[in-house]
Design a protein that fits this description.
Elements (H helix, E strand, L loop, with lengths): L1 H7 L3 E9 L5 E9 L3 H5 L4 E7 L9 E7 L17 E6 L7 H5 L3 E6 L5 E4 L5 H36 L15 H5 L4 E7 L9 E7 L8
Antiparallel strand pairs: 1-2, 3-4, 5-6, 6-7, 8-9
């Protein structure tokens, strides 16, 4: 599905790792997608997706399963996110198909970020240099995503402090010259249209009730 969408958007689709399942499907995959607006479009696909289907072994009942999608930005400069001095590098022999080159030489690479403890393991290519390059890209992408999440969290908390807690109801006292004369026309039911955080594809409509009452002098 994502491959067809990438072709439709004329993005460059480069699969790096495909783990096939015995039943004929794909258990996990790592794909690099490059193009204009890739991360801006696909970042909302991150999360847990529910898949409903009729499997080949049982055509009488619909089965429900889940798939997890992680969307990470690829940093333009890896050195800006991770430095070799902060990374512990381990090499080992890879298992599986690939001939004597991967079975007798240490082509697999494991990188561990000392500060955060993030570990990346790569056995995709037949050479240690290629696996090292891919592992550094994955590690830099994970660290960059963590920085983006922290920045978004700080922005959300500061925005919550400015705009309030977003509670269902609130009572606000406003005093000043001509306040009631100006705000009394705001009383009534207001319709609010917005794109919620959990669904950026559809506009949701809700209502809010505003009551404007004059404050008695005595």
């Amino acid at each position: 599905m994502y491959h067809n969408y990438a072709q439709f958007m004329k993005w460059k689709w480069t699969p790096y790792q495909m783990d096939a399942s015995p039943s004929g499907g794909i258990r996990s995959a790592v794909v690099f997608v490059r193009g204009i607006g890739v991360f801006r479009t696909l970042r909302y696909e991150a999360g847990v997706h529910r898949v409903q289907r009729f499997p080949v072994t049982d055509k009488t009942r619909m089965h429900t399963s889940t798939s997890v999608v992680a969307v990470l930005p690829e940093p333009e400069k890896i050195e800006a996110c991770v430095t070799p001095a902060d990374v512990k590098v381990e090499t080992m022999r890879a298992s599986g198909p690939g001939g004597q080159n991967v079975n007798q030489r240490s082509t697999a690479v494991r990188l561990t970020h000392r500060e955060t403890g993030v570990t990346v393991h790569c056995t995709d290519e037949r050479t240690q240099y290629s696996n090292m390059e891919i592992a550094y890209k994955r590690l830099a992408a994970i660290l960059l995503q963590r920085k983006l999440d922290e920045t978004q969290k700080q922005y959300s908390s500061s925005r919550k402090l400015r705009n309030g807690r977003g509670i269902r109801s609130a009572v606000v006292f406003v005093r000043g010259i001509g306040v009631f004369r100006t705000l009394r026309y705001e009383a009534g039911v207001h319709r609010v249209q917005r794109f919620p955080v959990t669904d950026k594809t559809r506009m949701h409509t809700s209502t809010s009730v505003v009551a404007v009452l004059p404050e008695p002098e005595k």
